[in-house]
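ok trying this again, last paste got cut off
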Amino acid sequence: MARYLIGIFLIVFGLVFAGADHLVFDRITVTPTDAEIVSIYNPTSNPIDLSDYYITDSNNYYNLPSGSDFWSGNVSDFIARFPDNQFIAPNESLVLSLHTNQKFSDYYGYNSDLALFEDMRDAVSNQTTISFGQQFSSLDFLNDNTEMLMLFKWEEGNNAVQDIDYFIWGNTSTGVDKTGVSGYVEDTDLVNQFYQSNHDENFTYIRFLLNNSEGAEKSTGGNGVDGDDETSENFDETWNIVLAPELGCTNSSSANYNASALTDNGTCVDYTIGQVYSQYGLYIDEEQGCNENLSTNITTMGLIVDYQDKTLVNGPKVIKIQDNEGYQLELTIWDWDPLDSDTVGEYVNPYNSTEYYIVVNGTLGVYNCNFQLELSGEENIMYLSEFHPNGTYESDSDIVESSIDVEPYVLIPSMGEKINFSYSVPSGSRAIIRIFDLSGRFITSLVDTFIEPGQNNWESSWNGRDHLGQVLSPGTYLMHIESMNFQTGDTTTDVAPVVIGVKP
C-alpha cells in the first residue's frame, strides 16, 4: 500500500469525482481525538436533502428497520441521523465534527458545518444513540487502529436500509457483511474486503482525486444506491493518506511558513540547508581552515537523496538531504537504526521509489569540512511531504501504445520549479522514462516501473535535475518514454522536448 501521498497539495471539498452518482465520503480523520472529522461530498448536479440519511460506526446498523440490535450501545459508538432539511449543494461538501464545534474549531481554526453532539439526531425517537450526553463528547469515537464508517439512507416504513458510502481502516474485523440477513443481498465477504492503513497524527484520509470516485466498485448486485456494492470498493486505489491541509508552519519568519495553515503542527524550521551554509559558513572556510568546534541545535528540512550505512568502518549511518537550491546536508545516526523504524525505514528503503521531504532537528557540527547534523532518535525526523516519481493515474483500457506530453513552459530548476508531464502506457507493460540531451547523452531516469492493468494514464512532474541531483544547464532536453509488454513483446516509444532556462 502507498502509505502517504504528497502533502503539498490543494484540497478543495468541491472537486469533481468522476463516476459518482450519489453522496461519498471525501475526507476522514481518526486521530488525534479532537481532530476526528468526516466530510461528505455531493458529486451530483442537484442538492441532496439529508433528512433520511444516517452515519454510524456500528456494523449492525442494517437492523435499524427492525427497531432492535442496530447498534452496540457502547458509549464510544454512535448511529446518528442528520437534521431535518439539511442539504448538501451540488459539488459541495459538508464537514461533520465527531465532537462539538468548539473542539473542532480549537483544533482546526475554523467551524465545522455540523457537530455530532450539537446538531445530529438520535437514530430513533426516545432512544439515545449518540453516546449519553455531552459529558462524553471527549471520547475517542473513531478507533485509531481499526473501525468502519457507513453512510446510509433509511425512510421510515421501509424494511431495509440503503448503503450510500463505506470506509474501513486498520483491518476488516469491524467491517460490514450483510450476507444471509433477511431483506439484503450478499455483501463482499470480509476476507475479500479492502481497507486503508492507519494514519498518524497531523494526517488525514482523502479520496484519491485522480481516480474514479469509487474505483472498480461493483455497480450491480449490491445493497447500495442502484445496486452498488459499497463493501467492494478498493480503498487502496480510491483513498490516500496526506498531511492535513489546515496544519503547517504558522511562523511567518520560518523558511517553510505556510500561509494557508490555520494551526501550527510543529514543522517550522530555523534554516533551509542553504541558509545553514550562509549562517555557519565560517566554520568550513577553505582558506582559514575548518573549525570543528561547532555544536548547535537547529531544525531544517530537505529531500532525502541518499542513505549509507558506514558502521562497518566505525562510522555512523548517514541520511543525506538536499534543498531546492541543491545544498546538501548529512544526517548522522549513531545510536539507533533507521531500518528498524516503521516510518524512517520506509523513507530510506532503496526499493521504494517515493521521494520524501522531511523536517529534522539535531545537533549541527563539522567533520572533514562538511556540515553534519546528528540525530539522537527517530522522533527527530518528521514527515513533511512526498513525491511519487511514477505519478498518479487514471484508467483507460483503450490505450495501445505509449505516449508522453510535457507542459509547454520553460523550466527553471534553480528556482525550485518543477514541470508537469503526462504519459500513457498499455496495460501490463514495463514503462521507462529517461531524459537525454540533444546529443543523446543520458541524463537521468524518471520512471522505471511495471504498469498494472488499469493504471494507464499517468501524471507526474520533474525537477530539472540529473541523476546526481544537480541542476541541469540551460538548453533543450528530450523526455523519452519506452514501454514493452512482457507477454506480447510489443515495444512502443514517444519523445517530447523540455526547455530548461536560468533565472536572469
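PB: full thing came through this time. The helical segments are 101-108, 235-238, 273-280, 344-347.
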